[in-house]
Design brief:
- By secondary structure, this protein is of the alpha/beta class.
- The protein has two domains: 182 residues, Rossmann fold; 125 residues.
- A five-stranded parallel beta sheet has the order 2-3-4-1-5.
- α9 crosses α10.
- The protein is elongated, with a radius of gyration of 23 Å.
Length: 359
């Protein structure tokens, strides 16, 4: 297995040529917005684009090569000094704001970006660039800022210094203050094509077989980050086990269900529990979507799940399956929030599906 590079060290950006061109056009126009809000689902390359923009700007706009002498892309060679310093977190004119550590031993990150994480942004941007040209700030992910941190960033956005650029990466821009959104130019990134996710999986997970690559690419819904996470956490195996149990409906294989719940519900199986509960809710949502497609069907992730969906949809209407989805997702959220017994929660979720399947 070859480990995928971190966004700050990733030289490649696939599937987002339109967003890249939009920034290049703004740069070449001489009227570059001082703040950009880069949005889209997790794991599709938003942070990679932010660092790609940062390197380009800190290098003074690259080396040309476009049709009329301007830059053809935001890319810098990996051996360029700016690329190396950004990748090593050692560029004097780049500041990155993320969630800080919650303890002195640096064992756990805070759940939000607090004002201490962003306090120095205004002063940093107001300084004369150490290397000439620009100063750049990346905030990732911007919606993780608490109210005080967001207000501190807003003050900078209201009176931006010259030659200062702020790049806000956001998975959920609706959670940001409207006044922050209104002061940024937006770059909305779309999920990657399934073929692109598959290509990247083959690059970074060369040991995966073709069936696994295809299934993970479909599960990931356009997110290479999600695909790699599922591969690392055994998500595809869990999904196949989930579908295998659902295939025994309308009467569940009780011994197999208990064995599965014992394995996933263990106190030391946090990753498996988190992955399985997300996949369970996602599968039920797909079931409801399939029911609303008026017979068009839904592309299978693993063989046989289409037949399972057809049987379940015949047993209950969409409104009843929506109730089951709401019950199951709420049950899993409560289990995590108040530390309920995971095995029992999982059994309850499967039995809720079984009751409707047998109606």
């Amino acid at each position: 297995m070859t480990e995928a590079p971190a966004p700050r060290a990733n030289p490649d950006l696939l599937g987002h040529a339109v967003a890249e061109r939009a920034f290049l056009d703004a740069w070449e126009s001489g009227r570059l917005a001082h703040a950009w809000l880069i949005t889209g689902p997790k794991g599709i390359g938003k942070a990679t684009l932010a660092y790609r923009i940062a390197r380009f700007v800190l290098a003074g706009g690259g080396g040309g090569g476009g049709l009329f002498g301007g830059p053809a892309s935001l890319a810098l060679p990996e051996d360029a000094p700016v690329f190396r310093r950004v990748a090593a977190a050692g560029h004097a004119d780049l500041k990155v704001a993320t969630r800080g550590w919650s303890d002195d031993k640096k064992t756990r990150l805070r759940t939000e970006i607090v004002v201490d994480d962003v306090r120095g942004i205004g002063g940093f941007l107001a300084l004369t660039p150490a290397e000439g040209g620009w100063r750049v700030v990346v905030i990732d992910a911007a919606e993780e800022m608490n109210r005080n941190a967001a207000n501190a960033v807003l003050k900078v956005l209201e009176e931006p210094p010259r030659n200062a650029l702020m790049l806000l990466v956001s998975h959920s821009p609706g959670r940001l203050l409207p006044t922050i959104r209104s002061r940024c130019r937006r770059l909305a990134l779309s999920p990657l094509p399934e073929t692109t996710v598959a290509d990247l999986l083959r690059r970074w997970q060369p040991d995966l077989g073709p069936d696994d690559v295809a299934a993970l690419a479909r599960l990931a819904e356009g997110s290479i980050g999600k695909a790699l996470g599922l591969a690392a956490e055994g998500g595809l195996g869990l999904y196949r086990d989930l579908v295998g149990l659902l295939q025994t409906l309308p009467r569940l294989d009780v011994p197999a269900l208990h064995a599965f719940a014992d394995r996933v519900g263990r106190a030391d199986a946090d990753a498996a529990w988190r992955t399985l509960t997300e996949l369970f809710g996602w599968w039920l949502a797909r079931l409801i979507q399939a029911g609303g497609r008026q017979g068009e069907g839904m592309a299978e992730v693993v063989p046989g799940e289409g037949a399972v969906m057809a049987r379940l949809l015949a047993a209950g209407g969409l409104d009843r399956w929506l109730e089951v989805w709401e019950k199951v997702t709420s049950l899993f959220a409560r289990t995590d929030a108040v530390n309920l017994e995971r095995k029992q929660a999982l059994l309850t979720a499967f039995l809720a599906v079984e009751r409707l399947a047998r109606a």
